[in-house]
Amino acid sequence: MLGIREFLGLGALGNLPSLRFKVTKKCDDKTVDSPLLSRNSQVEKKNLTTSEVEIWQISMARMGDSIQAFRSLLSHDEIQRADRFAFEIDRSRFFIARAAMRQILGWYVGVAPQELTFSYSQNGKPELNAEFEKAGLKFNLSHSRELALLAVTQGARVGIDVEFVDHKFPGEEIAERFFSVSEMKTLRSVPANQRADAFFCCWTRKEAYVKALGEGLSVPLHSFDVSFGPNAPAALMHVRTHPDEISRWSMYEIKVLRGYRAALVVEGSGHILGHRQWNVEF
Predict the structure, then answer these.
(1) Which residue segments constitute the domains of the chain, with CATH numbers given?
(2) What is the pTM assigned to this prediction?
(3) Cβ neighbours of residue 267 under 8 Å, at least 6 residues apart?
(4) DSSP symbols for 91-117
(5) Closest of 262, 42, 33 to residue 149, by C-alpha
């Protein structure tokens, strides 16, 4: 869930209204809404097939008046984690992203959001606790600035990453530390005015793969290559320690808000991607 700044250590780690959300599914030119779900309502379970991957777009803009409602859905451990952020804006975005994740996963599992419990791998990747294993869900969450993405699958390991394209960020300097030789060559070949976008395109694809593996910082980012650059389709190109990895995973570019870059990596192939929007109503 770390953004690039957190990864690099550059910063940003009563009576409440009933919290409801509207599930919006984009289907061709039509938009189909599900019934609203509340904290105390009986939740209807949503089933996924093994080939489906659903990507949820979560807006974290203009949510300041609702932060206490979001906070009420989180566990004590999650609240403690949020309190470690130095800035209120980072705490607020954490509350929103985690509350949205709980609501969405609760919809798939068939329980209220505050009833979900999680376990964490040695490298910090969350999973649903054993009591929810029958659901078979795998998921991954990423957020940057005012946008969060949640990917959900039925049993397939998954990683997703989103980053705001910050043209003031020292991308080339960071790339020299973390990109492979081949990737640096590609980055330098891109026109200067497109280089920031190319950097974040590459970064999100690399991060999505590492997050899908679930091995955290133990995987050196320069130990594998991804495609990027003008019109380059998303792909895992080469993994030096395990050449067969490229046939084990599928990589996808995810189209999101203008000014952001996002990528998805899923175990297996032949996936059907679904795009959904998380909307809050009180």
Answers:
(1) 4-9+19-161+271-281 (3.90.470.20), 162-267 (3.90.470.20)
(2) 0.86
(3) 156, 157, 158, 212, 248, 249, 250
(4) HHHHHHHHHHHHHHHHHHHTS-GGG--
(5) 262
Please give the torsion angle defined by the CA atoms of residues 198, 202, 208 and 214, in that order, rounded to the nearest 10 degrees.
-150
Q: How many CA atoms lie within 13 A of 224 on its CB side?
A: 25
The rounded distance, in Å, linking the Cα atoms of 1 and 115 is 21
% of the chain residues with pLDDT over 90: 73
Lookup: tokens for 112: 């209220």
Distances from the Cα of 25 to the Cαs of 39, 234, 273, in angstroms?
A: 21, 24, 12
Does residue 254 carry a pLDDT above 80? Answer: yes
Q: Is the pLDDT of residue 14 over 50?
A: no
CA dist., res. 214 & res. 263, Å (int):
16
How deeply is 199 buried, as exposed, middle or buried, from its count of CB atoms within 10 A (0-12, 13-18, 19+)?
A: buried
